[in-house]
């Protein structure tokens, strides 16, 4: 009997995959307007770009001072802390493979009105993140090139990212990959120099050290609380993968796996680079809170490495991460517009017939980013971003319990549907409770607007059941789709 050829295997797999996607589209009740062109590999790249592999570089000096130099431990705590919420995303994305992310999950798994509030709060995260990244990047570039006004850089970043977003998900996937390679090359250069500096030249600590991971005199309940607060906010962005549910093949399985894997992978990268930085420069108190990692780079390779790391971080924030964030918020706006729960629903839900992208939502995000980056302080934007994301995460974790444990009565899965989401809820609620007064003021104002807007729409919610919801949540149908 002849062995199967790659072509014959592909011919047998593709129809099955098409059948799975068709069943998923039917179960959601929505017409498939977006293009399914992504795989697990694309989602992992997207998740890494969103969270930024070199993100610790820009905050290393600050985190080092707050953690007594135990930055790797902070990120290790972050992995554990956010893993529970990532698992909640995994569970719900397997049942509701829809682009609306936490909005759709809470809407269908718990209650439509609460789903609207979850979507409204995540808008405060996703809608403002691009503006925040543009503002920071433009400010950094203006410092390097003071003759060029910051607003010029903002326009350049926004124009480039909007163009890539509009031209299609496949082009965006290629851009993500190229930008990720750039970041990893810069990181690899730092790693090589750091290893030589510590283990060959015997500088810094001169070898391995446990101090970056554990210092008995400083590790206590207060330290863990501080580390959790810092770390959770450092990992925001992993959830954006779920917004691509309608652009990936077999999303019930792929979205959840990519969410958890990207969190773990980025966590390991964060720990490795900060551990090496701590070995190179153990005297963390002498570092500038804003430029500490770049100072370490200059110590390793001179001015050129300092400049390289700084420029790549600007590209990572202003182009790579902002590009991914703009993609995510456009899908949230598209999904909420499609359900007609936001003003201008017809405008937001329009998809370009040839490019298969939510072109109007992308244009709205781009124009909003220009206005916000030019008129609102970075501090205010950052406070609202954190408040919105963590509020939505709390609703998400509760939804896992409500949907699987109460509605579906899956009592045997105590850890998956009760213990783990409860732990995720408690961790997020703890960080949420530690915000300052200004954050509560801005975040609470945004929440109040959402409550009022949702109440105005609530008469529609009484009879509103997203098309196909009944078939999407039935055990038999969901399991049948997953087995196909």
General description of the model:
With 484 residues, the protein is mainly α. The protein has one domain (34-462): Up-down Bundle (Amino acid/polyamine transporter I), CATH 1.20.1740.10. The chain contains 20 helices and no strands. The chain has helices at residues 6-28, 40-51, 55-66, 71-93, 102-109, 112-126, 129-144, 150-166, 169-200, 221-234, 251-280, 292-301, 303-338, 345-348, 359-375, 378-407, 414-433, 437-463, 469-473, 475-483. Helix 3 runs antiparallel to helix 10, helix 16 runs antiparallel to helix 17 and helix 16 crosses helix 18. The radius of gyration is 23 Å and the shape is globular. Mean pLDDT is 86; it is low at 1-19 and 466-484.
Keywords for this structure?
Amino acid/polyamine transporter I, disordered C terminus, globular, single chain, disordered N terminus, 484 residues, mainly alpha, 0% strand
What's the gist of this structure?
This protein is mostly helical and 484 residues long. The protein has 20 helices and no strands.
């Amino acid at each position: 009997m002849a062995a199967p050829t790659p072509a014959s295997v592909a011919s047998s797999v593709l129809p099955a995959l098409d059948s799975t996607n068709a069943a998923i589209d039917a179960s959601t009740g929505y017409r498939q307007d977006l293009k399914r062109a992504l795989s697990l590999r694309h989602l992992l790249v997207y998740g890494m770009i969103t969270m930024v592999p070199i993100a610790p570089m820009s905050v290393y000096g600050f985190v080092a001072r707050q953690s007594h130099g135990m930055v790797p431990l902070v990120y290790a705590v972050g992995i554990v802390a956010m893993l529970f919420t990532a698992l909640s995303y995994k569970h719900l994305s397997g049942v509701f493979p829809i682009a609306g992310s936490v909005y759709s999950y809470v809407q269908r798994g718990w209650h439509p009105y609460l789903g609207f509030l979850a979507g409204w709060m995540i808008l405060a995260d996703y809608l403002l993140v691009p503006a925040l990244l543009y503002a920071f990047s433009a400010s950094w570039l203006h410092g390097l090139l003071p003759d060029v006004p910051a607003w010029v850089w903002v326009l350049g970043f926004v124009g480039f990212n909007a163009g890539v977003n509009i031209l299609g998900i496949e082009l965006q996937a290629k851009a993500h990959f190229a930008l990720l390679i750039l970041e990893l090359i810069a990181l690899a250069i730092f790693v090589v120099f750091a290893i030589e500096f510590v283990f060959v030249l015997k500088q810094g600590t001169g070898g391995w050290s446990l101090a970056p991971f554990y210092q008995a005199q400083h590790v206590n309940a207060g330290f863990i609380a501080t580390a959790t607060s810092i770390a959770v906010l450092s990992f925001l962005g992993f959830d954006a993968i779920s917004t691509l549910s309608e652009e990936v093949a077999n999303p019930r399985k792929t979205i959840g796996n990519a969410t958890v894997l990207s969190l773990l992978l980025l966590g390991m990268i964060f720990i490795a680079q900060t551990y090496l930085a701590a070995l190179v420069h153990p005297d963390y108190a002498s570092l500038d809170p804003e430029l500490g990692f770049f100072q370490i780079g200059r110590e390793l390779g001179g001015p050129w490495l300092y400049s390289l790391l700084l420029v790549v971080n600007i590209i990572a924030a202003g182009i790579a991460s902002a590009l991914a964030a703009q993609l995510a918020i456009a899908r949230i706006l598209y999904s909420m517009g499609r359900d007609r729960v936001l003003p201008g629903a017809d405008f937001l839900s329009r998809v370009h017939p040839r490019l298969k992208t939510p072109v109007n939502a992308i244009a709205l995000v781009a124009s909003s980013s220009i206005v916000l980056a030019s008129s609102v302080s970075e501090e205010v934007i950052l406070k609202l971003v954190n408040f919105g994301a963590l509020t939505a995460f709390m609703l998400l974790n509760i939804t896992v319990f409500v949907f699987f444990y109460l509605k579906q009565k899956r009592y045997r899965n105590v850890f998956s549907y009760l213990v783990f989401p409860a732990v995720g809820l408690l961790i997020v609620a703890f960080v949420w409770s530690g915000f300052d007064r200004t954050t509560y003021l801005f975040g609470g104002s945004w929440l109040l607007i959402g409550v009022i807007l949702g109440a105005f729409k609530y008469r529609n919610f009484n009879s509103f059941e997203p098309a196909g919801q009944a078939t999407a949540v039935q055990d038999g149908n969901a399991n049948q789709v997953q087995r196909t």
